[in-house]
User: Fold these one by one.
Assistant:
Number 1:
Amino acid sequence: MTDQYLTTVLDKAERVAEHHEQVAQSSDHPEHEYLRYAVLRLLEGKADETSVEVPQIDGVTVGYGEDDAMCNSWDDDVEWWETVPPQEACTRFRVFYPDEYDAVPRVIVDVMAALGAWRVWIGSAAACGSYDHRERREVHYLWPEGHPVEALLANRLQDPEAAVAPDGGRSGDVRDRMVVTEHSPQHDDLEPRTSRAVDESMAVSLLEKGGRYEVRSASGNWYEVDVISESCTCPDWRKRTPEGGCKHLRRVDQEIKQGRVPRPDGRLPSNS
């Protein structure tokens, strides 16, 4: 579930960057700002459609700030830093939830785990002087600036042309990008899905600049392939997510490599 929530957090952070870019207007770490605001909106039930259904709990609110700055404001009045001292360049999330829950609601745990934050304090909100949150509890998480999740978001936010390799494939693509045909000497050594990708009759066309292709399979079904996010709408990909991609992803790779379809950036490969 953590991986699914990570995708959801990243999806939401992308939309934050697109529609609420002001949250990072004066920040040197915009991805950090987008992600923590995305977490707030997810847990407070303000998210739009998400790839994974995020359970909503009435009464959950989220606050956050720089941990050392919060310590300077609250240190004399609360016990938050007795266990873990204030951390530099680190966000402290304060997540409030109804005190009817004996434990931290699972959705809070899962979303924070996906982000890579760790829990450092839990207790009564009223006892911490949070008088607007009586009859609720709060749990605190720390999350450092420069966390690897920020790099994942940065990669998503970069210009699509920067995310493709010179031959039109995705930079860092894990799939074997050699050109093969049914007559190639290495054909018999191919992994079964790659072999089917080469042998079966498929029609490939670029749907949208940025790496989205449409594939008509031999069965007559149509599937959408995204070579940037490495995904396909076919049952094999949705159910198994095979390493190296489904046959449709691999076929699109081959078509791009051989110059039969435009690159993800809309241009034909330079060697075509």
Number 2:
Amino acid sequence: YETMTATARRQPEGSLVYIIEQTDLYLRVRDGVRQVQVNIYLTVSSVGVVNVCHCPQLHLVALNSPQTGAMRGIRGADFMCFTQAQAIGMKGTFRAFLSARLQDLQSIVRKADRDILPIVNLKDEVLFDSWDAIFNDGRMKDGVPIYSFDGRDVLNDSAWPEKTMWHGSTSSGQRHVDSFCETWRVADRALTGMASPLRAALLSFLYCL
């Protein structure tokens, strides 16, 4: 961080700087650098009291259609999240809810935010109390939907026949070796990727097709 700050004046305005040790992302602005908050998105209703959060938060939103294991790699998945979020006016940094060969799912949120920022859906309803809660308990709040970027309830919409989400991870959020559809580039029944039912703290293998 100290090196990045010292050299920031030599970077053109608009440059992005990623610090691996802290998994922090910074933007070069006119008067220095500014940290970028990361929003996380899924690559994939009962009645009850819903907790709406009007505080710093991380959004968990599904893509507008279910995906096979062929997403043009982690960058392709991130780009789909980015373009669909931009289409509805959302701002921020957009990352797919995926592990890959060089990325652990848990690490895509910076360490300082993992136990303090709630995870919310498109309507700011709390899905998980924190990022860490996803990996410690793994169950969403009862009665809270997951929405796609175009506003559909994934759990109740027939466009998603399988109510599961890709992640390629162990239960602790670490990459699951050889279980991410050839780094999310291949749709083939000969390959599998780690996934979880949306309403259960379970891990399972899905065919990449």
Number 3:
Amino acid sequence: MCVSISQVSRFRIHSFGSSCCERVHGWIKNSSSLKLLDVRASSVDGKARWIRRNVSTTTQGSRGNIKSSVLGGTVPLTRIIDEESRTKVQPFGNLQQRLAQDKDLPKLLTVIVSDLETTGLNRKRERIIEIAAQDLAGGGYSTFQTLVNPGDVPVTNTDIHGIRTDMVCRPEVPRMEELIPIFLQYVESRQKPGGYVMLVAHNGKSFDFRFLINEFNRCSYEIPHNWLLLDSLPLGREHMKSLDPTGKPKASLKVLQEHYSLTREGDAHRALSDVLLLSKVFQKLTIDLKLSLSDLVLRCHTASDIIAVMAKNKKA
């Protein structure tokens, strides 16, 4: 039986509600630090309200001064990841085929939609300046967003995303080496015990995943071995091609937004806005293409796959 993501309760997109949606634009425009967004609201008199609290974080065993804004409750950011178990790569063989055949796949897989913005387009010398992610299961603290301090690398493509150098080159904005442990903690907190993560990005194979791998390597980290990387752009092209077999399919996020008559929350080419939109687009694509979770897994890449392509291109 063909099961789309939206047909599996674990992978439904959480409805943020009108109160949260009104604040999305403000979150994206806010130039300060990291946010974990809790989709739960507290209520004393029966009316939902948002509570903003600051929490401290622990990075690689030492307490840092990264300012984190959390909506509602507390979040386990102080838990330290075991470095050895996180970075150790085990020989899985063909992970995609083995996982796709697992009858318990829905119980093992966490789907996280992601997006990032950068100082420029050159993957070798540019830096990430914004990251956002959303677990399609929804629930508390399912959404992650932060600006990233690129150090001495200036922002040269402000015209694309609206992020200026002075917005990110600030002491309160975390650098990538400080942020990676926190981002890994976020992903691990969403991951099912003994399970795997499917990280989805639009044009991820050519852009997002390569930037992420380069930044991890620069900071002496490895992409965890239980992450699968899925580029949603080929899915969009496949669907648009089916509608017009004779034409050259365009499948940018904007084209797919217009095709599905979706409303964008916030500005285009800001990480959180793109993530919220891609979450909706991705589910619609899986339905239209009649893709099961196993189908999606087989279309994934591992970090090793992409590293091999990058090395081949470098030699060429």
